[in-house]
Amino acid sequence: MSRRCQGVAESKGASGGVPTPTAERLHLDPLPFRERVLANGLRAITLEDHRSATAAVNIAYRVGGKDDPPGRSGFAHLFEHLMFKGTKRTGAETIDRLTEDVGGFNNAFTTEDYTNYYEVIPSNYLETILWAEADRLSGLIVDETNFVTERDVVISEYDQRVLAEPYGMLGELALRESYRVHPYGRGVIGDPENLRAATLEDVRAFHTTYYRPDNATLVVVGDFESDTIDKWIDEYFGSLARPQAEIPRVTTLEPPSGERRLSYQSTSAPLPALSLSWHIGRARDAEMPVLDMIETLLGTGKSSRLYRSLVYEHQVATSVWAGADWNEDPGVFSIRAIAANGVEFSRIEALIEEQIAAIRTRPVEAGELEKAKVQLYSGTVRGLSTYNEIAQTIVRSAVVRGSAHLLDDDIARYNAVDAESVRSVAAHTFAPEKRSMIEYMAVSA
Amino acid sequence: MPQAGPPRSVSLPHSHEIRLASGLRVIAFSRGELRESLHIPLISSVLIGNRGAAKDPVGLPGVAAMTSTLMRQGTTRHTALELDLAIDAIGARLDRSAGYDAISAGAGSTTAVFPQAFALMTETVREPTFLREEFERARTRSLSDLRLAYSSPSSLARLVAGRLIGGDSPYGHPVAGTPRSLEALGRDDVAAFHQHAFRPEHGTLLLGGDISVDDAFALAEKLFGDWRTDPHPLSDPVALPQPAAKRRVIAIDKPDAGRTAVIVTRPALPRNHPAYYAGAVSSAMFSGYSGRLNQEVRVKRGLSYGAGASLIWRRDSGQFVASTLVDHKRTVEAVCVVLDTIESLASRPPDERELTTRKASMLGGWNRSIETSEGLIGALAEFALYGIPLDELERYSESILAIDGENVRQFAEAHIIPDPTIILVGDTGNYASELGTFADDVRIIPAADLDLEALQ
């Protein structure tokens, strides 16, 4: 009896002074896609819709930075470039002409876990682009000329994005410090020395190993009829052979480590910066929605805890960023801050640790949790504005979490996060002995 | 390789409209109407005021742009920071923009929080405070943006082109103002312009997405039904016509420029002209990677990384602009190629094959632009602003497809080719002596002496 009364009193206390929970109104219908696996192992996910005579095609290969052979860092990324160089049946830039010339666009990107190629085109060109994607999966020309040209492009991309960018090296160093064993420590963009040492045979072997139908996820969203798209996918992709050899997978696990600290002198950074990271789990783990919530509370927008403390109240940083990796293998939670002029690292570190201590010990108040839920919900929904964004969301979940249907309940999982789960996940995630820190010093040139 | 099928068409949501008691025109559409399989809970809105930089007070270019910037920087209910926090907390966006013919404010968010996002947008329109300190901060930022624009040969060439073609007409001064006008204008000019630009009787509010038309109208009524504004607004400045086209070369000497920006330009037609579609297809012949200009300038001759052209459509008059960026030493060759390519539209009008390709590119871009509710609102806002019937949306594709080679030839001969103004911004020492081959009227002006309010 008394316990029941206590319960009532508590629930009143929790909602007192707080606006009606908006979380109840945060709803998203499951994306109505269809999924099938062809006999050769290719996974095809299609979502028919007719708001515009447009379609988005994404094809992701489950090969990313972590799958680069030892001593050959940058191979996955190199293929992101080679895939545009022409096939046995078409010339270079065919995909560019088939998209840009009809008012569409295309691009590709490489992550730690996968390489994704995408096109957005008028829907009457959909069959043509499906043919072209199947064609470059099966008939890509990997010759010395293309290899050398694109290798140099990748190396110059490293120069531009890592060496010349003021904070380009910070992310690379944070990865190296966080992973001593797992290949995530090598990054995605590629190591110029490794790339220079590579041979055409290495590159061809890599292509044969990973570019195959049973390692691909094809996602098509937009203006088509489901019967027709099935027919096209069967016709152009269904005929591709499934190789016998097994696809190698990374099985390495990063062992727990003690606290790490590294100082680096950057000649390109105008202001010093600080990076802190802690190991977390995989994107498909049950804890991930809570980590996404912690990321939002700490780092999303000007109302976030870190922005308010470091940038607004104490003005020790010009910007601050927080993010939880969303990876196939266990990732890291990172916080990065660019220092305001003349501020000591120790002061920034202390203020970040103050926020870390707060989220580990004190339960987040109902109003703030509510705000974070609305922000996460809005971010998720607004990330579905276009056919291509929808396709990329599906691809990412299908490849990184192994299932696109996990998307159906993401919002429900966010809505279910409570103050206690935030506190307890923060408490074990941000243990001081799990932390690695980079002090990125700016050496004035 | 399988060939493309015929262009497909989809059913677009119908637009519905009402006029509120305050006089405000409201246009709404609902995604729910089409019973699409995909339901994304997002709503967009925009309020356009039919007064933009073309109505900047005489001698004060930049007022409209400054007004649109400052609306976001504080209202009677929220300071600038509080507005940022409020928008951030609901994961929404508040936009504003200024052009020659309109300034606008918009809000977009998920359905769950749209009433809050829309209320914040309404505040920025109805109750901005235009605090002096925010005004000073915005002025400093605008001045540094201008310095950046003046330092780039391509953006400086565009500003010169706007001035030369617009002359003393309402389109002859830069939207962003000039260093002189930004120094001259004050906080009160902005407040007065705001009263002038945002008025129910010449405004249009558009809402669309995951909302019923009735709910959209009810929300509009709730927040704008009682909208009253100053009964004595500014009067519009007297609008002089755009000067006639004239063959000439204006070279701005900027010895520190890395390359020379080349622009070939002339006056063009207003947006609601019946030749709009012929014009749109004609300028598309030059545009994109496979368009004629890029083919001639980049692909065949390697003169530049890219070249293209566009028609700018406005309420009273428009402008044709072809542009590229080249090595100083190849400037004369590049001008010849650009002029010849423009003239080729009359001497060698596009055949069916070329038309099909360029139209596919136009329609592909158009369909992509109306894929989101935000994009659809953008298209409808343009129709509303220029007095074009809203159901033009459904005729857009067929109107483009109906244009043939002869339409293009005629349009080019009348409105694109004659009497080009050639503008060069770069190290003119490399080619100044050769410019007489392009026109009798050749002027070379040091960049330091350039006055974008007086140049004729």
Give the DSSP E fraction of chain B (strand runs of 2 or more residues).
15-25%
Overall outline of chain A: globular
Q: What general outline of chain B do the C-alpha atoms trace?
A: globular
Determine the number of helices of chain A (DSSP H or I, runs of at least 4 residues): 16
Strand arrangement across the biggest beta sheet of chain B: 1-2-6-3-5-4
CATH superfamily of the largest domain in chain A: Metalloenzyme, LuxS/M16 peptidase-like
Counting structural domains of chain A, the number is 2
- Named CATH topology of the largest domain in chain A: Cytochrome Bc1 Complex, Chain A, domain 1
What does this protein look like?
The complex is a heterodimer of chains A (445) and B (456). Chain A is α+β, with helices and mostly antiparallel strands. Chain A has two domains: 34-237, Metalloenzyme, LuxS/M16 peptidase-like (Cytochrome Bc1 Complex, Chain A, domain 1), CATH 3.30.830.10; 260-442, Metalloenzyme, LuxS/M16 peptidase-like (Cytochrome Bc1 Complex, Chain A, domain 1, 2-Layer Sandwich). Chain A has 16 helices and eleven strands. A six-stranded mixed β-sheet of chain A has the order 1-2-6-3-5-4, with helices on both faces. In chain A, strands 7-11-8-10-9 form a five-stranded mixed β-sheet, sandwiched between helices. In chain A, helix 3 packs antiparallel against helix 4 (126-138), helix 4 (126-138) packs parallel to helix 9 (226-237) and helix 10 packs across helix 13. In chain A, 49% of the residues are buried. Chain B is α+β, with helices and mostly antiparallel strands. Chain B folds into two domains: 16-224, Cytochrome Bc1 Complex, Chain A, domain 1 (2-Layer Sandwich); 248-449, Cytochrome Bc1 Complex, Chain A, domain 1 (2-Layer Sandwich). Chain B is built from 15 helices and twelve strands. In chain B, the strands form two sheets. Chain B has a six-stranded mixed β-sheet, sandwiched between helices. A six-stranded mixed β-sheet of chain B has the order 9-10-8-11-7-12, with helices on both faces. In chain B, a hairpin with a 4-residue loop joins strand 4 and strand 5. In chain B, helix 9 (276-284) packs across helix 15 (405-416). The longest helix of chain B has 20 residues, at 132-151. Chain B is globular. Chain B starts with 15 loop residues before the first strand and ends in a 10-residue tail after the last strand. The mean pLDDT of chain B is 95. The chains are: A alpha+beta (445), B alpha+beta (456). At the A-B interface, helix 3, strand 5, helix 4 and helix 13 of A face helix 2 and helix 12 of B.
